[in-house]
UniProtKB/TrEMBL annotation:
The keyword Lipid metabolism does not apply. It comes from Allgaiera indica. Residues 7-252 form the CN hydrolase domain. This is Hydratase. GO terms for molecular function: N-carbamoylputrescine amidase activity. The keyword Hydrolase applies. The lineage of its organism: Bacteria, Pseudomonadati, Pseudomonadota, Alphaproteobacteria, Rhodobacterales. One of its GO terms (biological process) is putrescine biosynthetic process from arginine. Signal peptide: none annotated. It comes from the Bacteria. It holds the Pfam family CN_hydrolase. Keywords: Hydrolase. InterPro entries: Aliph_Amidase/BUP, C-N_Hydrolase, C-N_Hydrolase_sf.
Length: 277
C-alpha cells in the first residue's frame, strides 16, 4: 500500500430527471468537468444517474436501460474519462441479454474497467431489475483497489466485509437514499450512520454520491459524504435538497496505519474467523 499516491475524490450530488437520459448525461458531464477542474482523480455519481429512479413499467425500463459498456451512457462517460484523464463511477440502468440491472460502471482514461450489479434490490426495484449476479468485484487501478456497492447494499455489513476481504481500498457508493421508517427528518441520516460504521470497521475509504429532489412522489434525502478509513467524514454530509460537489483527498498508502488502532489491535487482523467465519 505504501506506493499508493494521494487520490482526490469527488461525489456529485444532483437531480436526475426520470426518462430523460440525454438531459441527465449533459448534467453529469457538466458536473464531472467541474469536479475535474477542482482536482478530482475519481468522480462518483448517483444511482441510476442516467435514467432516473422511479420506473413505472417494464416498457419504460427497456427504453431507458442500455448495455454496459457498449451503450450510449457508458460510452459517453468512458469518452469523458479518457478526455479528462480521470476515473468515473456512475450508477446506470443496464440491459444485458434481455434482462435489466441496477448497475454501476467504473471507467478510466484507458476505457471501461468493470461493472457492478446491485445485489440487494429495494422496494419496487424488484419489479424491474434482476438481482446482481457479478458478486462484489474489486478492481486494481492506478488510484488503488476500487470496489462498488449501490444504495441498499450498504444496509448489509457483509457487503463491506467482502470488499475488505478482497482488498478494497476505496469503495464507491452510487445511491438514491430515501427517508427511513420512523426516522426523525432532522436527525442524521441512517445511511450516514451505516456507512460511517462500515468505513471504520473495515478500514477503507467510502465515497457516497446521493441524489436530491422528488421524483413521481418519492423524495430523496441528499446528504452525500466522503469518509475517512477511520469512519469520520472528510467531506459532507452535503445538503439535504440542493445539488453539490464534495471534494476530499485520501491516501490509500496510509490504510495499513489507519487499521492499526493501537499496539495490540488491528481492525482486520483481530477478526476471529475461527468463531464466525
Amino acid at each position: 500500500m505504501a506506493d499508493r499516491a494521494d487520490v482526490t475524490l469527488a461525489c456529485i450530488q444532483f437531480e436526475p430527471i426520470i426518462g430523460e437520459p440525454d438531459h441527465n448525461l449533459a448534467r453529469m458531464e457538466a458536473h464531472i468537468r467541474e469536479a475535474h477542474a477542482r482536482g478530482a482523480d475519481l468522480v462518483v455519481l448517483p444511482e441510476l444517474a442516467d435514467s432516473g429512479y422511479v420506473f413505472e413499467t417494464m416498457e419504460e425500463t427497456a427504453r431507458l436501460a442500455r448495455p454496459i459498456p457498449g451503450g450510449a451512457s457508458a460510452a459517453r462517460l468512458c469518452a469523458l474519462a479518457a478526455e479528462l484523464g480521470l476515473h468515473i463511477v456512475s450508477g446506470l440502468a443496464e440491459e444485458a441479454g434481455g434482462d435489466f440491472y441496477n448497475s454501476a460502471l467504473l471507467c478510466g482514461p484507458d476505457g471501461p474497467i468493470g461493472t457492478y450489479r446491485k445485489l440487494h434490490l429495494w422496494n419496487r426495484e424488484n419489479l424491474f431489475f434482476k438481482p446482481g449476479n457479478l458478486g462484489l468485484p474489486v478492481f486494481d487501478t492506478p488510484l488503488g483497489r476500487i470496489g462498488m456497492a449501490i444504495c441498499y447494499d450498504g444496509w448489509f455489513p457483509e457487503t463491506f466485509r467482502a470488499l475488505a476481504a478482497a482488498g478494497a481500498e476505496i469503495v464507491c457508493i452510487p445511491t438514491n437514499w430515501v427517508p427511513m421508517p420512523e426516522q426523525d427528518p432532522e436527525a442524521e441520516a441512517m445511511a450516514n450512520v451505516l456507512h460511517k460504521a462500515a468505513a471504520h470497521s473495515n478500514g477503507f475509504y467510502i465515497a457516497c454520491a446521493d441524489r436530491v429532489g422528488t421524483e413521481r412522489g418519492q423524495p430523496f434525502i441528499g446528504q452525500s459524504l466522503i469518509l475517512d478509513a477511520t469512519g469520520w467524514p472528510l467531506a459532507g454530509p452535503a445538503s439535504r435538497s440542493a445539488p453539490e460537489i464534495l471534494i476530499a483527498t485520501v491516501t490509500p498508502g496510509a490504510l495499513r496505519a489507519k487499521r492499526q488502532l493501537n499496539e495490540f489491535n488491528n481492525i482486520l487482523g483481530d477478526r476471529r474467523t475461527d468463531v464466525y467465519g
